[in-house]
Amino acid sequence: MPSDLSPPPTAGSPAHHTPYLIFLLSWLSLSTFLYGFHISALNAPQSALTCAASPSTSHAAPLPSCIPMSSSTFGLVTATFSLGGLFGSLLSSYTLPTLLKRGTLLLGSALGAAGSLLITLAPSVPPLLLGRLLVGVHAGLAITTVPLYLAQLTPPRAGAERKASSLGLLTQISITLGILFAQSLGLFLSRPGYWRIIPLLSALLSAAQGLVGLPKDAVEEGPGDGRRVWGVKVVRDEGGRDGAAAESQALLGEQQQDETVKSQPTAGGLRELLGNRRYRPAVILAAVIMIAQQASGINAVLYYSTSILSSLLPLDNARYVSLFITVINALMTFPPIYILPRLGPKPLLLLSLAGLALSSSLLSISLSSHLTLLSGITILLFVTSFAVGLGPLPFLILPTLLPPSSPIPSSSSPSRHAHADPAPDPALAGALASLALALNWAANLAVGALFFPLRDALRKAPGEGEGRVFWVFAAVCVGTAAFVGVRWRPRN
């Protein structure tokens, strides 16, 4: 709200970040922050949690200091998060029309608090599995709902490119910061018994988010006259349009229409998408890219980097390297904003895949040959290659894969969007996004659950051939690059 000494904002004034808007963005970002938190929550404390650091469990305390399990069982516990994420993403198609976005996120906070508390108090593997499943559902609800909220909070006069970069960046930053925070806690709490503090902190954050809540009129009823959210008043005429800021009102209308489409069930669009041969190339290309995003092995690194490096380094050193990996992952969120407009999506994606293939190959050699320095360098190169391309690009390019729903307007068209490609049918774009998200979660689940069994099957013996599994990830990246290079023809 403006002070008494400040001139009142007018319809023609630029929007700015009000304290209320900052509160809304912070509250929403906490959901995706916790999503990232749970990606890495079990990475550093793996040895303390699974009794590898202390084979004998202490029962003097109310809860055992650790829970004995094999590496394959630990992989299953970790991957159950992805199963919950898949279920949460599908559940959102029912909760968004009924509970609306606010109710969906509050439900997610409740499930996240319950799941984190279960992990904190788990005396054995089954409650641990259930807890990971619940926090996964929270993540699935968050990753589908928060972007919808953020789109409606875009300030007036923010163009489409600014909207995509700033809001998409906020989601990505909150996820990477969550990963970094969890990994940082692991440095201090990866001891028998103390590892339970990590999920306890997550439970407290989820509970606090639910208790603080979100004002019902924040987005569900729209931003109102805009003064409270943006610090400007949007003046409308009898037809509901903005007289003094027509462009801002038009953008608001586009956002609200987009929200309506995204909140509706996409079953009809999905049937059309899968049944019409015109869309088949886009569906296949989207499926390959989304599966490759996880099958590149990135979450094997984010989930298990401490375990991977502990065969070469003392455990404490491996945790510090894992923390540095998450720092690089967070910092590399920013370069694509500047590289993408200059290089273009296809060259950037191919460059990213080439870097991943090269780093996976070198990582396989260095891990199998026990080359510690080279292993550390290549795993950082691996994360960097992913973060600048294959990480942020897939969801950004999805709408561009579909053919336009109408002919491209001529240059003489009076429309202010005449110079741009027409957007694909919104129902089809929503269906493609839903299908892509489901495939992404499924691939995430497969990589998380199968990494340790695959590693054990490919290596000669414990400590020998530890890096062979990364040849599989290198092959996936090479195959994906070849397919994308041949089959993807971006619209100009």
Q: Beta-strand percentage? A: under 5%
Order of helices and strands: HHHHHHHHHHHHHHHHHH
Question: Count of DSSP helices?
Answer: 18
What structural class results from the helix and strand content? mainly alpha
Low-pLDDT parts are: 1-13, 158-165, 235-265, 407-421
The average pLDDT score comes to: 80
Mind summarizing the main beta sheet? none
Compute the CA-based radius of gyration. 24 Å
Identify the overall geometry.
globular
Distance between the termini: 43 Å
Question: How much helical structure, as a percent, in the residues?
Answer: 55-70%
Count the beta strands.
Answer: 0
Observed structural traits:
492 residues, mainly alpha, 69% helix
List the helices and strands and how they pair.
Layout: H1 19-40, H2 46-49, H3 71-121, H4 125-152, H5 160-189, H6 197-212, H7 227-230, H8 246-263, H9 267-275, H10 280-295, H11 298-309, H12 315-331, H13 335-343, H14 345-368, H15 372-390, H16 393-401, H17 426-458, H18 469-487
Helix pairs in contact: 1-3, 1-4, 1-5, 1-6, 3-4, 3-6, 3-17, 4-5, 5-12, 9-17, 10-16, 10-17, 10-18, 11-12, 12-15, 13-14, 14-15, 14-18
